[in-house]
Amino acid sequence: MPARRRTSPLEIVQADVVACRRCPRLVAYREQVAREKVRRYRDEEYWGRPIPGFGDSNARLLIVGLAPAAHGGNRTGRIFTGDRSGDFLYRALYRAGFANQPWSRQRDDGLVLRDCYITAAVRCVPPDNKPSPSELSTCRSYLIEEICLLRNLCVVVALGRVAFDALLKAWGEAGHTVPPPRPAFAHGALAELAGGVFLVASYHPSQQNTQTGRLTSAMFQGIFVRVRRLLDRPCVDRPRASMYGKV
After folding, report:
1. 90 lies in a domain?
2. 22-54 burial, b if ≥16 CB within 10 A, otherwise e?
3. φ, ψ (nearest 5 deg) of residue 123
4. Residue 238 pLDDT > 90
5. What is the pLDDT of residue 5?
């Protein structure tokens, strides 16, 4: 009889996320969306629960988004899956060699991330896509655990200002140093955190940003081309001093 595979610490965190009911407003909203649906998905069963992180447990790249989309992740049960933001993201990851395919439609669509793990600042869809400060604070413990468990981490990409701020707070609460002065958000901004881990900022690939041209495909692809260059450098024996600039 084959031995049972042991559950990894990261899988335990993922299961804890899925079972979470800490934020009453978010629980009520995500379940309401899952009941009411939208016309184009009325025949589908919505996930309607918190969305766990997804990807390679040995990843050197961590991507932090804002929150699941109402009819994307909240419907499919996987981060950045089933919506146009996900199409934009996974196309860029595929071109940079971090994904085996350039789309993400359903949890069972065969997508595999390579050397990359994706998570979010908030794990439930928030009304108007705006989590409250207390909801961000409550959800931060999961991001802290993920940071601690991704032991090969070399680069973090924060998608949007909210994710950028959430990452810095989680980084500090995980026991790492946030370099002074505190890094400021701007598309393409680069900061070196403790231990030679780099934080790269990007505009979020939301429809509002991509359809207005605030974030173009070339701009977004450039983020991951430069992430690849950072990963080509060893993650140890780097200078520990903070440094800022544009990637």
Report:
1. yes
2. ebeebbebbbebbeebeeeeeeeebbbbbbbbb
3. -100, -5
4. no
5. 74
> What backbone torsions phi and psi does residue 56 show, to the nearest 5 degrees?
-85, 120
Share of the chain above pLDDT 90, in %: 88
How sure is the predictor about 235, in pLDDT bands with cuts at 50, 70 and 90?
low
CA-angle at 59, arms to 229 and 165, nearest 5°: 80
pLDDT in tens, 142-192: 999 999 999 999 999 999 999 999 999 999 999 998 999 999 999 999 999
Tell me the torsion sign for CA atoms 88, 19, 147, 24: positive
Query: Is residue 245 pLDDT above 60, yes or no?
Result: no
CB atoms under 10 Å from CB of 196, counted, come to: 16
Write phi, then psi, for 94 (nearest 5 degrees). -60, -45
Task: Please count the other Cβ atoms lying within 10 Å of the Cβ belonging to residue 186.
Answer: 14
The domain spanning residue 29 has which CATH number? 3.40.470.10
In the numeric block, which tokens belong to residue 64?
């932090």
List the domain range (segments joined by +) for residue 214: 9-246
How many domains, the chain?
A: 1
Which amino acid is residue 226, in one-letter code? R
**Tokens 């040995």 found at:** 58
CA separation for the pair 243, 8 (Å, rounded): 35
pLDDT at residue 13 in the model: 98
Whether cis (ω within 30° of 0) applies to the bond prior to 24 is no
